[in-house]
Amino acid sequence: MACSNFTPLWGSSKLSSPSRLALQAPRSPRPSSSTVVCSLRDLRDRIDSVKNTQKITEAMKLVAAAKVRRAQEAVVSGRPFSETLVEVLYNINEQLQTEDVDVPLTRVRPVRKIALVVVTGDRGLCGAYNNAIIRKAEQRMAELSVLGIEYTLISVGKKGNVYFQRRPHIPVDRFLDAGNQPTAKEAQAIADDVFSLFVSEEVDKVELLYTKFVSLVKSDPVIHTLLPLSPKGEICDVNGVCVDAAEDELFRLTTKEGKLTVERDVVRTPTPAFSPILQFEQDPVQILDALLPLYLNSQILRALQESLASELAARMTAMSNATDNAVELKKTLSILYNRQRQAKITGEILEIVAGADALV
């Protein structure tokens, strides 16, 4: 009997695949009227298959860990630009405190239609990462429907693209790919699209849904208001709670007691005042009008980087769980193999003894 018919004992004949190992822990064999006993050869093949799966999941875990570190380096390398940008934004706002600033990206209008930018991953085998952000988007769309507010989506990432393409009743303005290494080019494509929608008054508000990287075992789907921006470039959630642009969270991947861990620090950008004798060649409003799109681009890029780090951390956790399940399944199968082998040897010995007794 082929070992592929071993389903009643283990619950699935495809448990050796990484995705199944990540989602389903092995169970001890239980008596069943339909139990199929595998031969020793079939059990050996099954054990070898689980060993190969374990090697694959271990390799995928190490690759994901290395990519998380690169994602951290990308966030760190982008800080000097964002620090300088925030510093200039603060000081220009000091010059404009007494003026009535009219910048298109800061114009608040009655909300009749909202654009939702949903950032998902390009690949699977990362646990509930993609499902969590898609579920968050579904909840937000349900809330807007109850309020009678129209919405349209900008889907970023292959998993989200496939999901929304299969649901034609959901209005999607554009499908975009996030890429394995988010750069300013990908962020600019998203920023150009939301900028044109907002300035042309096709939408009155733009919200960004992405996964915030908290730790290697935790990530939170969040919603931030991209547009309209505040003159200081503050980032606000849907409840109106804003975070000062000068404050930023920086995560560092470190090792503690032989295990990878993440440390987060709240970093405040120093914002020294410009010299009082300094004068701008252009009108400060024009400078602010040019800087806010840059700041919008930097915030989108940061969200893409955080989402990538969350996806890689989720994949590393899923592959770690798959490896542990493979080890446990291999151990259980080895015990069953040894029991059958022992039973076979015992049976052969009894046959020899019985034959010897019959000759006496």
From TrEMBL:
<protein>
    <recommendedName>
        <fullName>ATP synthase gamma chain</fullName>
    </recommendedName>
</protein>
<keyword id="KW-0150">Chloroplast</keyword>
<keyword id="KW-0375">Hydrogen ion transport</keyword>
<keyword id="KW-0813">Transport</keyword>
<dbReference type="Pfam" id="PF00231">
    <property type="entry name" value="ATP-synt"/>
</dbReference>
<keyword id="KW-0139">CF(1)</keyword>
<keyword id="KW-0066">ATP synthesis</keyword>
<keyword id="KW-1015">Disulfide bond</keyword>
<comment type="subunit">
    <text>F-type ATPases have 2 components, CF(1) - the catalytic core - and CF(0) - the membrane proton channel. CF(1) has five subunits: alpha(3), beta(3), gamma(1), delta(1), epsilon(1). CF(0) has four main subunits: a, b, b' and c.</text>
</comment>
<keyword id="KW-0934">Plastid</keyword>
<comment type="similarity">
    <text>Belongs to the ATPase gamma chain family.</text>
</comment>
<dbReference type="InterPro" id="IPR000131">
    <property type="entry name" value="ATP_synth_F1_gsu"/>
</dbReference>
<comment type="function">
    <text>Produces ATP from ADP in the presence of a proton gradient across the membrane. The gamma chain is believed to be important in regulating ATPase activity and the flow of protons through the CF(0) complex.</text>
</comment>
<keyword id="KW-0472">Membrane</keyword>
<dbReference type="GO" id="GO:0009535">
    <property type="term" value="C:chloroplast thylakoid membrane"/>
</dbReference>
<dbReference type="InterPro" id="IPR023632">
    <property type="entry name" value="ATP_synth_F1_gsu_CS"/>
</dbReference>
<keyword id="KW-0793">Thylakoid</keyword>
<dbReference type="GO" id="GO:0046933">
    <property type="term" value="F:proton-transporting ATP synthase activity, rotational mechanism"/>
</dbReference>
<keyword id="KW-0809">Transit peptide</keyword>
<keyword id="KW-0406">Ion transport</keyword>
<dbReference type="GO" id="GO:0045259">
    <property type="term" value="C:proton-transporting ATP synthase complex"/>
</dbReference>
